[in-house]
Amino acid sequence: MERIADPSEVAVVLLAAGQARRYGAATDSKLLALFDGIPLVRRSAVRACESRARSVTAVVGFRAPELISALSGLPISIAHNPDFASGMSSSLITGIMTPQVRSAQGTLVMLADMPSVSTADLNSLIEAFVAHGGRSIIGATCGNIRGNPVIFPRSLLGEVARLKGDLGARNIIRASDVPVVDFDIGTSALHDVDTVEALIAAGGIIS
Q1: What is the pLDDT of residue 196?
Q2: pLDDT value at 190 more than 80
Q3: Which of 31, 51, 70, 170 has its CA 20 to 30 A from that of 149?
């Protein structure tokens, strides 16, 4: 007998593979910068682990050994994207191809460089996904501006798998027939640290 879909089964894909070309020197990684003494990538992963999500998968690529070390001991899966330089879509595809993500009803795509996104924010998005029966795209916003994270229902994994380049999943949100529900989490939805200046302003310390 087919298992009844449970919309509370949400898997996090934490995108931590990019080279962040606007950040510092070519060999620098903003995800290894310290926030309250903790590498940013680990801080983001911990918040995901403490959420209602049933699993967390971190996708790594650029400076993968150091990131894997920073994530050690956490109850997460690591997926390596050797093609990370081609753009965000390759990392998304790497994440959604893992068994724990493919079997979930929803995929919460989280960027590892957003230090203000909290566990409470993630839980609010998951609760909205559940409230809409696991059939809608749930996108974090700040007012009328869409940002991140985003939850995609399982029905859209095929479309995600066909993405190319560095556009992420924005085209899917614009073009899909699946309902899109905007959920306001405030400025956290827009707060990333793409530059050294932004990272320092957010309270980070370059390691």
Answers
A1: 84
A2: yes
A3: 70
